[in-house]
Write a structure and sequence with these properties.
alpha+beta, single chain, 275 residues, 24% helix, 14-stranded antiparallel sheet
């Protein structure tokens, strides 16, 4: 009788251990079918918004006889910065937005896969996004594009890695011109704690548009945006800071105002700097 009880007890314990091992195994498997796919990083991980530096200079000049030279200089720099950002990340950002509005499935390689189409700037792309978790508790992302007219067949356009929470990571962008090589054209490091706490750094690694070695540091904290632009061809650094609510700010540029800090107020008019 005691032998039968012992056997029953051992059988019960063995069953419980099997269940525990099964649960642990499922938790450790990064691609478990029961697990939800990782959250696609936000489009803001590629967004540098310079709208405060645009479409306001003309209005300021019309309503005042005072000088708006300092703000005007910042506007010109903002146009340059926007062009650098857009030529590098505009289409990837659009594809990232589309991915956020698409659903994922687990493929045969136990990777999460998104498949969708997107037309951007009159160019259509069939997109295949793959995501896989790593042992370091991070997520790898790869965006592949297909377009027969451009002779693109499942070609890597950009990829990156994020932490498990999707609050920080890095993107790398590649040329999709038919050059026979996978050339990296730029990369971007980012960290986003909330919509008003953002840090981005875009560095250009290709000379395809004459900006090789340039970088843009973009910080948005509370109501303050700070932008540092390094022009590699001139070995020169420009800093702009402004309040998105009051519009007041300053610019420090090596070839403007003798390199001294130049400020403007909430009316965009030139004012002495307080510091």
């Amino acid at each position: 009788m005691r032998t039968m009880k012992n056997r029953y007890l051992l059988s019960t314990v063995a069953g419980l251990l099997s269940c525990i091992l099964l649960i642990v195994s499922c938790k450790d498997d990064p691609s478990s079918v029961s697990e939800k796919p990782p959250t696609v990083p936000p489009a803001s991980s590629m967004e540098m918004d310079f709208s405060t530096l645009s479409n306001q200079k003309d209005g300021a000049q019309a309503n005042s006889q005072q000088s708006v030279e300092n703000f005007g200089r910042a506007v010109v720099t903002g146009i340059v910065l926007k062009s650098i950002v857009e030529v590098n990340v505009a289409i990837p950002r659009a594809l990232l937005t589309a991915a956020n509005n698409s659903d994922a499935e687990l493929n045969e390689n136990e990777e999460w896969e998104w498949s969708f189409s997107r037309t951007e700037r009159d160019t259509s792309f069939d997109v295949r996004l793959l995501a896989s978790r790593t042992e370091q508790d991070s997520v790898n992302w790869s965006f592949y594009v297909t377009n027969p007219d451009l002779e693109l067949d499942n070609q890597l356009f950009f990829d990156g890695t994020t932490n498990a929470n999707g609050t920080e990571g890095v993107w790398a962008y590649y040329s999709i011109q038919n050059t026979g090589s996978q050339e990296q054209v730029s990369h971007l490091n980012w960290a986003i704690n909330d919509e008003n706490d953002i840090e981005l750094r875009l560095e250009v690694t290709s000379d395809r548009h004459g900006n090789q070695g340039d970088y843009i540091d973009y910080t948005y904290e509370d109501s303050l945006k700070t932008v540092v632009y390094y022009d590699n061809s001139e070995d020169a650094e420009t800093e702009i800071q402004y309040n998105v609510n009051t519009k007041a700010g300053y610019i420090i540029a090596p070839n403007y105002n003798n390199g001294e800090k130049a400020c403007w107020d909430e009316n965009l008019q030139d004012v002495p700097c307080s510091e």
